[in-house]
Design brief:
Number of strands: 7
Shape: elongated
Mean pLDDT: 79
Helix content: 25-40%
Radius of gyration: 22 Å
Order of helices and strands: HEHHHEEHEEEE
Strand order of the largest sheet: 6-5-7
Low-confidence stretches: 134-142
Number of helices: 5
Oligomer: single chain
Length: 183
């Protein structure tokens, strides 16, 4: 059975003020544009751990709407990524959330009519995800030069090559930056 198109989800009947239009939930299908070989892709490359961290931070930092709705949406997105659309629909129905187009990326509403918007990278797997072992050499924008120098920066200053990070004031949990200079 094929998935209905977006236009098939639209309804022409008038809803009473107490009714909320709700289409069946479906997995997000990203719209892909043909890529020019001469122009590099602007899509972000994610590592698995960074993607999971940013998804967690997305849900932890929501300040609008109701917390229990965001918690339900987090569970729904996890179920969708696992391919369990039926259970995801059950969680939405139980929490009173409606999805007018069936796609969470287009937005969904709680029972009071508050809009909840989710980015595509939260709802579905992005195209460019690499495992944590490192970036795949050869993909656009990810290839490192064969020869070059790497400098480490901390707190806006380049660190000395002969000293350890701790000797130069770095503390565990702080971020350092690696700058790659081709030769």
């Amino acid at each position: 059975m094929s998935q209905p198109s977006r236009s098939e989800y639209r309804s022409h009947r008038t809803l009473a003020p107490s009714e909320h239009f709700n289409a069946p939930l479906r997995p997000h299908i990203p719209l892909s544009k043909p890529r020019s070989k001469s122009k590099p892709s602007k899509q972000r490359t994610w590592t698995r751990s960074l993607l999971e961290k940013e998804r967690g931070e997305f849900f932890e930092t929501r300040v609008t709407g109701r917390g229990e709705v965001w918690g339900g949406l987090k569970l729904v997105t996890e179920l969708l990524r696992e391919g369990d659309v039926q259970d995801a629909q059950g969680v939405l129905d139980a929490s009173g959330v409606t999805v007018p187009t069936g796609d969470l990326v287009d937005g969904c509403y709680d029972e009071q009519g508050a809009l909840y918007q989710l980015p595509a990278w939260v709802v579905a797997e992005p195209e460019r995800v690499v495992e944590d072992g490192g970036l795949e050499v050869g993909e656009e924008g990810t290839e490192l030069p064969g020869k070059g120098r790497i400098k480490i920066a901390y707190m806006g200053k380049l660190l000395k090559e002969g000293e350890s990070l701790q000797e130069q004031g770095w503390r565990e949990g702080h971020v350092i930056n690696a700058l790659v200079f081709p030769q």
